[in-house]
Design brief:
β8 (94-100) and β9 (104-111) form a beta hairpin. The strands form two sheets. Strands 1, 2, 4, 5, 7, 10 and 12 form a seven-stranded antiparallel sheet that branches. This protein has a five-stranded antiparallel sheet with strand order 3-6-11-8-9, with no helix packed on it. It is built from no helices and twelve strands. By secondary structure, it is mostly beta strands. Helices cover 0% and strands 50% of the residues.
C-alpha cells in the first residue's frame, strides 16, 4: 500500500496543525502564555518564536514539577524550546525529563547557560526519530526542585505516516 509521510506541527498555543489537539499543561495554574505574561521572569523576542507564542513555566526552588503532555500519531517527534541567556537573579537553567507512552524514559535535557547573553530559539530538547507508527503520548517534566528550572515550550514537530489505497478502473 502506498504511504504518504509528512511532518506536522504542534504549536504551544494553537495545537496540532491538522487535528487541532492542544498540548496539556499541568498544573495549568503554573503555566503562562509568554507574550502576554508581565510577571514572567524572562521575555524572549516574540517575533522569533514559532507563531509568535510560547508557554512559560518557571519552577522555583521547592516548587513541584510541572509538565507538558503531547498526543500524536506518528513515527517521530521533536520538541523545540526557547533557551534564555544567563541573567542575574533569574532562573535560566533547564532540567527536563522525557517519558513516552506512560512511563518509558526517553532521557533528559539539562542546560545551564554560562556566558550566552542572547536568547536561543528553535532549540531541540528531545528527538525521538524511530517510533512505531501508532498513537503516542510524550510527557515532558521539569526536574530540579532544588535549583529550579525554566521551561519555555515553543512547538513540536512529529512525523505522520498515512497509508492509502489506489482506485483502479
Amino acid at each position: 500500500m502506498p504511504q504518504v509521510i509528512s511532518n506536522r506541527t504542534i504549536d504551544d498555543e494553537s495545537g496540532d496543525s491538522v487535528s487541532g489537539a492542544l498540548p496539556t499543561y499541568v498544573p495549568a495554574s503554573s503555566w503562562r502564555l509568554g507574550p502576554t505574561c508581565p510577571d514572567c521572569v524572562v521575555h524572549p523576542d516574540q517575533s522569533l518564536a514559532f507563531n509568535r507564542t510560547w508557554h512559560d513555566n518557571s519552577q522555583f526552588p521547592g516548587d513541584p514539577p510541572a509538565s507538558l503532555s503531547l498526543d500524536f500519531v506518528g513515527t517521530a517527534i521533536y520538541v523545540f524550546c526557547i533557551v534564555p541567556p544567563i541573567e542575574a537573579n533569574v532562573i535560566s537553567r533547564y532540567s527536563l525529563n522525557f517519558s513516552l507512552d506512560d512511563g518509558a524514559s526517553q532521557g533528559t535535557f539539562a542546560y545551564l547557560p554560562t556566558s550566552n547573553t542572547d536568547f536561543l530559539y528553535n532549540v531541540s530538547v528531545v528527538s525521538l526519530p524511530s517510533l512505531s507508527n501508532k498513537a503516542h503520548n510524550l510527557l515532558v517534566s521539569t526536574d530540579d526542585a532544588i535549583n529550579g528550572s525554566i521551561f519555555l515550550f515553543d512547538y513540536a514537530v512529529y512525523t505522520c505516516v498515512q497509508s492509502y489505497s489506489l482506485l483502479t478502473v
